Amino acid sequence: MTKFYLEDNVYRKDDFQVHAVVLRCWYEGNDGIPISEDPLMRNLKPGEVGVAYYPLGRREICSEDEFELLDRTFRPGSVCKRFQDDTMSGIVLNTHVNVRVQHAITNQPLDRWIPLNETNPGHELEIGDHVIHDDWVGQIIELFDEAMVQTSNGDIRRLPDLSARLSIGYKGEDVLVQAAGGNAEVLKKISESAPLSPDDICLGLRHRLAAISWLAINQTLSPEESAIRQRPKRLWRAEEFDNLTLVRRRTTVRIGEMITLKDHGNAPVSRHVNKITEGDVIEVRHLIVRDRKTQVTVLWQDGRKETKPARELVPHLHPDEYECWPGDHVLWKTDGKSRTAVVQVVNPSQRVVILKFTDGLESAPEIEMASLLEIDPHGTHDITTNDPAPSPDELGVHRGEFAFIHKEGTTNGSVMPRVPKIGELESWVQDVPSLHTMQSGGFTDVVYEEGLKVIMSEETRGAFIPTSIPVKPVYWFGYVSDLCTDGQIEISLPHGEKALIPLQRLTRLYDGLDQLEDMFDEGFSEEGSLMEDVFPGGDEWLDGHEAGNGSFPFPPGYANELMGLDWGGDMSIVDVDPSASAGGEEEIMISDAMDTYMDFPGVDPPQFPGGLPMDDTSITPLLSTTPVPYDPSPPTSQPNGPLRDSENDDIYWKRFDVLSTAPADHAFYDRPVAQPSRSFMARLHKEYRALSTGLPASILVRGYEDRGDLLRSLIIGPENTPYEDAPFVIDWMLDADFPQTPPIAFFISWTNGNGRVNPNLYEDGKVCLSILGTWSGERSETWQPSRSSLLQALVSIQGLVLVKEPYFCEPAYEKFRGTGEGALNSRLYNEKAYVLSRGFILRALEIPPGSLEDEIRGFYLSSLPPEGRETEGHPGHDQGHAEGSSQGRRRGRGRLEKVLKGSKDLISLSQALHGSQTQCGPLSQGQPPASETGPSPVPDEAPAIPSLTAGGILSLQRVLSKLSNIQANSSQSSPEFPSTPS
């Protein structure tokens, strides 16, 4: 269990006087950290923590058990809990910080707690601060510092602090060296009057030059006024700082940070005389924060407000996608429609929420209880449009965000409750030092050279020239301090006033540092180029050996040619560049489908009916004419152990088939296709061969004569997982570079914008898997042209993605397996996945995907044919199906009957367990922590979904009602498979 978090203030159990700040935690992503001399830069083990001691500065990695907590860092907008596995979370509204300090030079302490609001920051500006000038909002990107140093001979000099590592009170022989920052010319000049000495001491620091990127302009200006307001200059000297208006919300302070008291009368002071000039006297009033205690005011999801010591709360590291708090603007998505609403109160243990709708529909209630599983707090995908791309405008605003205020009578131009975001980072800021070489360059060099020029050209003796940044009234920009349940937003203005503003009159600021972070993330993305290749149209499918200009269909009947080929003899691919693969020979081993499981402890290889063919002579003809019975047992064991067997019901269908035409609803149907090369055809031959003999009974694949580059697969969710009996359809494309590059997958998501059904299956179609090149992994897990196959990819999806505890498929969450927090989040994720996958069954039956219509209806709805009647195909197959392509038979009412019974039984069990706890209202204590008895792993035989919350029941009942109608209509029509045509 996690004991400490980033920025925690702690002390050693063996010495209360030794304080430290937590800089690294074991739960952080630390894979692949390079070897470094820094003692903190190594991978941490669970239970370890990296700290920096104050004031010693020593850094080390220790056991969490060696420390106790002093104080915890929160800021307005932070999400917290009372304990890690509590279902109730809260949002921090305000912080109330008190500090203990000591003088920076003399170390004289003030033996009382001082409220933070009675202090000033040690510097007038900090990197990341927002400033205003001439109707423009800018952000401090870089600062150039000047230091005041007293040398061993008593001289006091103002020097450039090129290293930015000096602090007031820093004493030692390297003070001047640090100030020079490795610049030999500067070091020579500043040390010529006195030798380096351990008595050298830094008496003061100030910012001499600021680089400001101007992001966006006042939104109350008319277009004509905006056009004449040019961006202000980027470099500002200290004497110009009083022309700026600072916009800063000071909510916390770090241990070791410099501050000054607003009331200097009660502050200790040290005086330093320049022994060279015998006249200059420097007074130092800076204080160092040596201890801190924080109280936070929290708004809990149930609407209660509470002020508590920060150390009694824990950060909520992984809020789920449905988490929201009173005042949040959200979308309620159900039945293919969405409504806008404001959250009033949430019952997180039962996953229900009270909403106040803001869309003004007179025919609908204004306030209603809804399932959290139907709430979208982010607006990532809008089901009212057909555009699967994320919207650039998020829903509402968040506490702590900066926002522009539009004039009364005007709006931000977006559809409520979406709020646009503006702010353009200037081009010079994007010219940054190389992250690969870590060499200086870009705008940092400009600031360095300009600042050095200014300081080195001046008289270096004498005190700092006082500078200040005045507070000026600004009514068009501020930060979000609260969200009201009537939908209005409380904005705190720079000069201290507060205003209630309607959401439609706000535009969020796109922070410059956030833009830099996003830019770096995009630069290091390992997935971007691949996804760009998947979705845009217009690329012709050209083979490296037979490039052509036109687009040609595959030759008619080519699949039949493949079926008739001799399957014995040499299996190597012809017409392939030997350098393209490590082995120099294309050889698909069907047994390699098991390789995926080798690096996953406790995961057994898939067991295929009749075993895997290991050589050419054992492979049966490509298309079997005998239907294979569906074995309801899962094709593979899950990480938690083997799954349960289901009842011994039979269903007959053809696992692999090649149909005449591809369906128009195929994700890649509109992609152009060129004439295939011989090497492609030979490789396709081998892929078909592997699929025809190696597919488990719960995976169906269809190929197409007119589009050999396309396939469609249907995977039935394994037993005792949240995906049990649900259909998962994935479209595949083999592009021009196949098999040198992996097949391209597109997952057909039917979540209606209500989130991902699995961490690896995205709503936009992306399938995140190492073998597909959409996730970084070990070389043994990635696509290898000479060994990997489409069969291996399919089995990987069923065996490694559609698992019993999908929450832990997210790499960052695997390390929380076995913790109370991990157990809670996994349980909630399983419920979501279960409810959403029941919706997949409904969607598949309402609008079956092309070329799988009969298989889906047969699996879920078909009744038993008359005794002794053998069927050769499903009725009603369209012309795209080859004759006799699909067969289905099962006893009973079809799998839908089992789905309905299982879901209804689960609802009854859940209602009996929870009783009256399904109401939405204030909860005084939330759910009891699982940690009281200790988290236990989910036993292999335990049900994946032991019970449902009230919110899960609400959402599931909507689906079950429609599924029951489909079953009833199917019963009335009594569909049976026709007898074999004579």
What shape does the CA trace take?
elongated
Beta-strand proportion: 15-25%
What is the CATH level 1 assignment of the largest domain?
Answer: Alpha Beta
Mean pLDDT: 79
| Structural domains: how many | 4
Tell me about this structure.
Residues 867-881 have a biased composition (Basic and acidic residues). Keywords: Transferase, Ubl conjugation pathway. Residues 679-842 form the UBC core domain. The protein is built from 14 helices and 41 strands. 18% of the residues lie in helices and 24% in strands. The strands form nine sheets. Strands 6, 7, 8, 9, 16, 19, 20 and 21 form an eight-stranded antiparallel beta sheet that branches. Strands 10, 11, 12, 13, 14 and 15 form a six-stranded antiparallel beta sheet that branches. It folds into four domains: 1-71, SH3 type barrels (Roll); 75-318 and 396-524, no CATH class; 329-387, Roll (SH3 type barrels), CATH 2.30.30; 570-867 and 894-970, Roll (Ubiquitin Conjugating Enzyme), CATH 3.10.110. Mean pLDDT is 79; it is low at 31-35, 383-390, 434-439, 524-650, 864-892, 921-936 and 976-982. With 982 residues, the protein is of the alpha+beta class.
